[in-house]
Amino acid sequence: MVNEMLIAGLLLAGTVDHVLEEQVRVEYTLRNQDLWMDVALLESTCEPIEGMHVLFYQDGIIKCFCGGKND
User: Fold this and answer.
1) For residue 9, is it left (φ>0), alpha (ψ between -120 and 50) or beta?
2) Is the pTM of this model over 0.85?
């Protein structure tokens, strides 16, 4: 599933900026611009922490790196 999302261009790589009760703010770079996206924590497949690198899309985080419950 992750490979299909990469091919479709829907999956992004970023760094967790803030973790709130229901949302995670992820910072990422697109076309040399630093951007942020709020992602639902409920739909995420891992437990992100601030500073963690993640693969994500608009509805949730797919993969956490450097820790988390599904690393």
Assistant:
1) left
2) no
Q: What is the pLDDT of residues 13-31, one digit of tens each?
A: 999 999 998 999 999 998 8
* Residue ranges of E strands in 20-69: 23-30, 33-40, 53-57, 60-64
Amino acid at 23: Q
The tokens for 52 are 């963690």
Taking CA atoms, 18 is separated from 37, 48, 51, in Å, by: 11, 9, 8
Cα separation, 16 vs 68, whole angstroms = 12
Instruction: Express each pLDDT in 1-15 by its tens digit.
Output: 555 445 456 789 999
Q: Which tokens go with 48?
A: 């992100």
